[in-house]
Write a structure and sequence with these properties.
This protein is of the alpha/beta class. The chain is 37% helix and 17% strand. α3 crosses α4, α4 packs across α5 and α5 runs parallel beside α6.
Length: 335
């Protein structure tokens, strides 16, 4: 099955990529390895040609999963992973020093059971290390034949320009959905100007726009339990706007997740959303969104639903927010 294609710099990938994080990390207990293996292979069967992982996800277990599950189909997909955010002394840590980047990459290659990663990102901007030094480590890794294209994640337009001056970036990855619009401040324009692709993670707002969140009774280990907008007293307010969005999706004949993915894809021709799911049904549903073409009227209606204070609360808790370099709106609530 062939899906529509989009460009991330010199990389040609399916217009919908698959975010692997949820198979090992972030949203309660990870599914069984056998099930996750089947989901990954089903994504490839359906035409997805980009799989996105990171050293941090599952503290390396997500990369291990891919290494065991799909490397026999290595020529069918673009493999993307990330460094800088990693396990340090048994905990989530941030280290963008060249030595740390080199160590993370070598460990990732072993876990992934490959000698080459197609797209390798700096997962976050470590403010203690000049971006030029971090980029230099990736340039050396590319010269050594360990990685191909280079990307950055959750960084501002200014930092993107600095990184791009060291070596052309293929992609910038940041959170983007109808309720998280920060890339529109400056990053999307910078990407268009510089010829950089944009990878939108959490395009359904961590399930908020996939009709999967109805209360804050999250399972143990679910990171949304620490995110203010996903917990009470703010969640009830936010679900009022979500209800309007769900009603619009039904009116248009789409699921909420499809409407959100179609909206993200419609914003710029170089955007590739990467939604993750553990469900075969939802995987097929998400991929079908690549065929949806929204009218300008529908796009504006979605923006109207989420205008003003329709969604309240910071998108991150204090520590993760401190590691975000992306621009913020003047009236944005920060942890």
């Amino acid at each position: 099955m062939a899906l529509p294609q989009r460009q991330l710099g010199s990389l040609t990938v399916s217009a919908f990529g698959y975010g692997c994080m949820g198979l090992s990390h972030a949203y309660d207990t990870a599914p069984e390895i056998e099930h996750s293996t089947k989901v990954l292979n089903k994504a490839l069967d359906l035409g997805v040609t980009m799989l996105d992982t990171a050293a941090l996800y599952g503290f390396g277990k997500n990369e291990e999963l891919l290494g065991n599950a799909v490397m026999h189909r290595r020529d069918e997909f673009t493999l993307a992973s990330k460094c800088v955010l990693d396990v340090i002394d048994g905990k989530r840590g941030l280290d963008a020093s060249p030595k740390a980047i080199a160590n993370t990459l070598d460990a990732a290659l072993k876990r992934l059971k490959t000698d080459f990663i197609d797209l390798y990102y700096l997962h976050r901007f470590d403010k203690n290390v000049p971006i030029e030094e971090s980029m230099g480590a990736l340039v050396r890794a590319k010269e050594d034949g360990k990685i191909g294209a280079i990307g950055v994640s959750e960084m501002s337009a200014e930092t993107i320009r600095r990184a791009h001056a060291v070596h052309p970036l293929a992609a910038v990855q940041s959170e983007y959905s109808p309720v998280v619009r920060n890339p529109e401040i400056a990053v999307l324009d910078a990407c268009e100007e510089l010829g950089i692709g944009f990878v939108a993670f959490s395009p359904t707002a961590r399930g908020l726009l996939a009709d999967s969140i109805h209360d804050d009774n999250y399972a143990e280990g679910d990171l949304r339990a620490a995110m203010p907008r996903f917990t009470e007293p703010l969640l009830s307010h936010n679900l009022k706007a979500v209800a309007k969005f769900n009603a619009l999706a039904a009116e248009l004949g789409h699921t909420p997740a499809q409407l959100s993915l179609a909206w993200v894809s419609a914003r710029r021709p170089f955007i590739v959303p990467i939604a993750g799911t553990r469900s075969f049904e939802h995987l097929e549903e998400n991929i079908a969104a690549t065929e949806i073409r929204l009218s300008e009227e529908s796009i504006l209606e979605i923006e109207k639903i989420f205008s003003g204070d329709a969604i309240r609360g910071p998108r991150y808790a204090a520590v993760p927010q401190s590691q975000i370099d992306t621009e913020t709106f003047a009236d944005e609530e920060l942890a």
